């Protein structure tokens, strides 16, 4: 038997399935787009069973194209986006569509909590910010506005936990997802019962899943799941972690002097602390599953999902051509940006398609008759990087990047050398990209390796299953160019945000929870 590990990662836009060997090398991967539904302004939903079927197809495709025997799969782990919410009844059937982490229906609930002082009390109890896509206020919204949904619901789950339910019938969660959801006292590692009661959720407490260790075997692939996926019935299923933690593990994050930068649907920027970080209070904070550390994260929906919107909305024809030539539109975009990297360019892009500070929308500023597509795409790349820089500045506080020895980049932009270099130059930090391309799925596979005894713990898994495949060093000239452009981005963005305040309608609530929120 050749031991293989399977990781499933269902993020904001794609469900990925990746196969790894026992030392963390990525053998193959499959991608399926998640069909996102927008039934009302500010609502972001998906079909949970559609997501499960996408995972099933991905598993079958990976096994088929690699010729992997199902018996060679030592374990499988599902990873998913944090926050949002899934509702199932006592039989495990879906009650309603799942909620995405970019959903903003709970914005008015949070505004009410803020006016009454409850918001700050809740934040103190869960050691992180309260924000619209977080599970806690979403659940409170349902209790207030759709109590019938909760009457039909027996179990409230997070994304990865729903997938694991379908894989093995287990209903549980882990400390990272419970923390990201806003349901847990992160320092104590258990549900924040008093906070849940204060939020009006007393009747929902018994609907929350038990919390178990991230690296435990939670169950085994059922006969039904085996028939759907092609996996062997009885294959161990690990509980796993949510995607930010998975990407940090796969990037090799173990030290407090390293910065984890995950660029995906959200701009996710994290640092390790010995105790929970309370000043500044991060967007997200969870117990990191190595050596008793805590992962503090600033996050906002201002990252690579903005490029995806540009490609889907404005570059559909180019994407078609790229596909016919066996390339992705993202590779084409990287080539175009590289061709324009040394041109004088005054274009600024504000990556707020999911909403920015004060509800500001996305926008391009400074386009002229002589501007070309490569210039515009360069501005998109840079604007997304600048949004990361703003959140990193808030996360690190007055000390800035002093004491940070390097950044670890993962997510879609890490596959682009030119985009990675822009991150490196804008942060003015050495930057490293670990081996592989599917970091969320790999983090899940690393948890699986521990669960079945292939690694003694995640610290050893990081040492044995991650390697740096590419490094970037800041270019002094580009550092100065980007420093000036970032200053202008921040100044202009602040003025534009202020201008949008009176024009932001309640049903256009922003998912923005970044540094300027």
From TrEMBL:
<comment type="similarity">
    <text>Belongs to the FGGY kinase family.</text>
</comment>
<dbReference type="InterPro" id="IPR018485">
    <property type="entry name" value="FGGY_C"/>
</dbReference>
<dbReference type="InterPro" id="IPR018484">
    <property type="entry name" value="FGGY_N"/>
</dbReference>
<dbReference type="GO" id="GO:0016301">
    <property type="term" value="F:kinase activity"/>
</dbReference>
<feature type="domain" description="Carbohydrate kinase FGGY C-terminal">
    <location>
        <begin position="261"/>
        <end position="451"/>
    </location>
</feature>
<keyword id="KW-0808">Transferase</keyword>
<dbReference type="InterPro" id="IPR050406">
    <property type="entry name" value="FGGY_Carb_Kinase"/>
</dbReference>
<protein>
    <submittedName>
        <fullName>Carbohydrate kinase</fullName>
    </submittedName>
</protein>
<dbReference type="Pfam" id="PF02782">
    <property type="entry name" value="FGGY_C"/>
</dbReference>
<feature type="domain" description="Carbohydrate kinase FGGY N-terminal">
    <location>
        <begin position="6"/>
        <end position="248"/>
    </location>
</feature>
<dbReference type="Pfam" id="PF00370">
    <property type="entry name" value="FGGY_N"/>
</dbReference>
<dbReference type="InterPro" id="IPR043129">
    <property type="entry name" value="ATPase_NBD"/>
</dbReference>
<dbReference type="InterPro" id="IPR000577">
    <property type="entry name" value="Carb_kinase_FGGY"/>
</dbReference>
<keyword id="KW-0418">Kinase</keyword>
<dbReference type="GO" id="GO:0005975">
    <property type="term" value="P:carbohydrate metabolic process"/>
</dbReference>
């Amino acid at each position: 038997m050749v031991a293989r590990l399977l990781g499933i990662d269902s993020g904001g836009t794609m469900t990925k399935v990746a196969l790894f060997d026992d030392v963390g090398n990525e053998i193959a991967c499959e991608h399926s787009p998640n069909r996102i539904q927008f039934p009302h302004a500010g609502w972001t939903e998906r079909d949970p069973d559609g997501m499960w079927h996408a995972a099933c197809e991905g598993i079958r495709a990976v096994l088929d194209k690699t010729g992997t025997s199902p018996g060679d799969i030592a374990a499988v782990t599902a990873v998913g986006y944090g926050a949002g919410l899934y509702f199932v009844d006592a039989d495990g059937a879906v009650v309603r569509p799942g909620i995405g982490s970019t959903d903003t229906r709970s914005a008015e609930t949070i505004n009410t909590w803020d006016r009454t002082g409850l918001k700050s009390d809740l934040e103190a109890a869960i050691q992180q910010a309260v924000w619209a896509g977080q599970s806690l206020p979403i659940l409170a919204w349902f209790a207030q506005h759709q109590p019938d949904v909760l009457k039909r619901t027996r179990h409230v789950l997070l994304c990865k936990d729903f997938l694991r339910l379908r894989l093995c019938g287990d209903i549980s969660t882990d400390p990272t997802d419970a923390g990201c959801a806003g349901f847990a006292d992160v320092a104590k590692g258990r549900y924040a019962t008093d906070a849940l009661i204060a939020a009006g959720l007393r009747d929902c407490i018994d609907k929350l899943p038990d919390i178990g260790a991230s690296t435990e075997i939670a169950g085994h692939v059922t006969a039904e799941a085996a028939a759907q996926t092609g996996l062997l019935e009885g294959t161990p299923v690990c509980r796993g972690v949510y995607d930010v933690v998975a990407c940090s593990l796969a990037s090799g994050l173990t030290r407090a002097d390293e910065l984890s930068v995950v660029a995906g649907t959200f701009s996710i920027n994290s640092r390790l602390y010995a105790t929970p970080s309370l000043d500044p209070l991060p967007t997200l904070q969870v117990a990191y599953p190595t050596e008793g550390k805590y992962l503090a994260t600033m996050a906002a929906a201002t990252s690579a999902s903005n490029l995806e919107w540009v490609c889907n909305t404005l570059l559909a024809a180019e994407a078609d051509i790229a596909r016919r030539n066996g390339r992705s539109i993202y590779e084409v975009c990287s080539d175009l940006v590289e061709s324009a990297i040394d041109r004088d360019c005054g274009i600024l892009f504000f990556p707020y398609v999911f909403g920015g500070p004060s509800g500001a929308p996305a926008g391009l500023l400074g386009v002229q008759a002589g501007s070309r597509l490569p210039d515009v795409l360069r501005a998109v790349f840079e604007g997304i990087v600048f949004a990361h820089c703003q959140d990193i500045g808030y996360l690190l506080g007055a000390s800035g990047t002093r004491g940070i020895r390097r950044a670890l980049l993962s997510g879609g932009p890490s596959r682009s050398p030119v985009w990675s270099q822009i991150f490196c130059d804008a942060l003015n930090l050495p930057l490293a990209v670990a081996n592989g391309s599917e970091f969320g799925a790999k983090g899940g596979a690393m948890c699986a390796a521990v669960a079945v005894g292939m690694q003694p713990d995640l610290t050893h898994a990081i040492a044995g299953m991650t390697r740096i495949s590419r490094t970037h060093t800041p270019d002094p000239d580009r550092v100065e160019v980007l420093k000036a452009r970032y200053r202008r981005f921040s100044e202009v963005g602040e003025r534009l945000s202020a201008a949008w305040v009176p024009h932001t309608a309640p049903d256009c609530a922003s998912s923005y929870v970044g540094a300027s929120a």
